[in-house]
From TrEMBL:
Top-level division of the source organism's lineage: Archaea
Keywords: Ligase
Coiled coil feature spans: none
RNA ligase Pab1020 C-terminal domain mapped to chain residues: 262-387
Residue ranges of domain RNA ligase in the record: 86-251
GO molecular function: ligase activity
Protein's name according to its UniProt entry: RNA ligase
Cross-referenced InterPro entries: Lig_Pab1020_C, RNA_ligase_dom_REL/Rnl2, RNA_ligase_Pab1020
Species name: Methanothermococcus okinawensis
């Protein structure tokens, strides 16, 4: 496959045998984006995180995988036990993780799994002042791409409504934004204040702290969670101001229900994988928030509805002979960009159908892509046809 094994092994501090073996098992794969060839770690190999990318360029640039953020099931005593002194509470945005880097003077958007995504890469150029990466080429900007019009996690955020075209008769809007939450160099994160200062200097949008608390101030942290829940937002990520310990996360009832609703719409594709963890989170949350009979009943009802309504809806859809898809409305600048992205989806083995495709004013290309969930359709169809469980 033309991979300089010994050089790569040395660069990552891995033994050659370990590297060769991982390549044979396809845990490490060789990918291409335009003229760039790069290796992707699909799983953790020794100390090298999942999602790590190694570019096969002159310098063999490495972009580390974004580390997992562990979860608190109860805030008390977890926060007190875990943090050193102060805790920065940030909003947890519900989108997809993007690492933005400068490789040989080209700005690239890398997904959590370690692929250079052509959609993301092009949007990054519109959403960020990339001078920051020209002046500091060694840093990785880590952020959350959010909004309705992205191909991975479509979730509406009012603050990222952008007008992309307007004349007397038409307005075209795209709901998409990128908020940076971490600046990394190697495997080190910049302290929160330093991060914010640098981002402000370049006018780069970032996740703003909801508050800085003493680690004993759990009630205040709980209040921010209650408020976010009411506003239908995902949750919080808590960080040490100097980033000396890893961040931890905590999410809202609203999000758990949302997740269940999505999971049960695609019953046999996502249901099993999502259900148990969300229910456990709800159990601990109900306990920690000291719920009485009425509040618990309300929680139980909304959990139940999130499960049963979307599932029945899917069964009805299959019964009517419809395809179960998750639809993404995306805006592109050219026909080539659309084609490049569709090729990319094939490469990463996402099956899809193109549901709508039109050219709007100012040569804006609007596409609706339906991601296909095959197991859900096939299994529902088979049970409806009389198959036994
Ligand atoms: P993980 O492996 O980290 O648990 P996951 O796929 O289960 O990831 P999430 O439950 O969404 O993902 O939680 C972690 C992710 O949250 C981060 O990878 C990041 O993309 C996202 N995120 C959103 N807002 C923030 C923030 N303010 N700080 C850190 N991460 C954030
Ligand atoms: Mg997420």
């Amino acid at each position: 496959m033309d991979i300089p094994i010994s050089k790569v092994a040395e660069r990552l501090n891995l033994e050659e045998d370990v590297l060769k073996n991982a390549i044979e098992r396809r845990v490490i794969t060789l990918c291409k984006y335009r003229d760039k060839r790069y290796l992707v770690f699909k799983k953790k190999v020794r100390h090298v995180e999942r999602g790590t990318v190694l570019f096969l360029n002159e310098r063999m640039d490495v972009v580390m995988g974004y580390p997992k953020i562990r979860r608190a099931l109860v805030l008390d005593p977890t926060v007190k036990k875990y943090f050193i002194d102060q805790v920065v509470v940030e909003e947890k945005l519900n989108g997809y993780n993007v690492r933005v880097v400068n490789i040989d003077n080209e700005i690239l958007g890398i997904t959590r799994g370690g692929r250079i995504c052509p959609f993301t890469t092009k949007k990054v150029l519109k959403l960020l002042n990339t001078d920051i990466l020209k002046d500091h080429p060694k840093i990785t900007l880590c952020g959350e791409m959010i909004g309705l019009n992205n191909p991975y996690v479509p979730h509406y955020y009012p603050e990222v409504d952008r007008e992309i075209y307007r004349d007397e008769s038409t307005v075209i809007r795209e709901n998409l934004g990128l908020y940076i939450f971490d600046i990394r160099e190697g495997d080190r994160s910049l302290p929160v204040e330093e991060r914010n200062k640098l981002l402000e200097e370049y006018n780069v949008p970032y996740v703003k702290p909801l508050g800085v608390f003493n680690k004993e101030e759990i009630e205040e942290i709980k209040s921010t969670v209650v408020k976010l829940d009411r506003e239908n937002r995902e949750g919080i990520v808590m960080k040490d101001p100097s980033m000396l310990v890893d961040p931890i996360k905590y999410t809202t009832h609203y999000t758990h229900c949302q997740d269940l609703a999505v999971a049960f719409r695609y019953t046999f594709d996502l249901g099993i994988h999502f259900m148990f963890s969300r229910l456990i989170r709800e159990g601990f949350q109900s306990y920690e928030f000291n719920e009485g009979e009425k509040e618990m009943e309300r929680r139980a009802l909304s959990i139940g509805k999130s499960i049963i309504y979307p599932m029945v809806e899917s069964i009805k859809e299959v019964a009517r002979g419809e395809l179960i898809t998750e639809d993404f409305e995306l805006y592109f600048d050219s026909e080539e960009d659309v084609e490049e992205f569709l090729r990319y989806l094939k490469e990463v083995h996402i099956s899809y159908v193109v549901k709508e495709r039109e050219v709007l004013k100012n040569r804006i290309f609007r596409v609706i892509i339906g991601k296909v969930y095959p197991s859900t359709r096939d299994k529902i169809k088979s049970y409806l046809g009389g198959s036994l469980w």
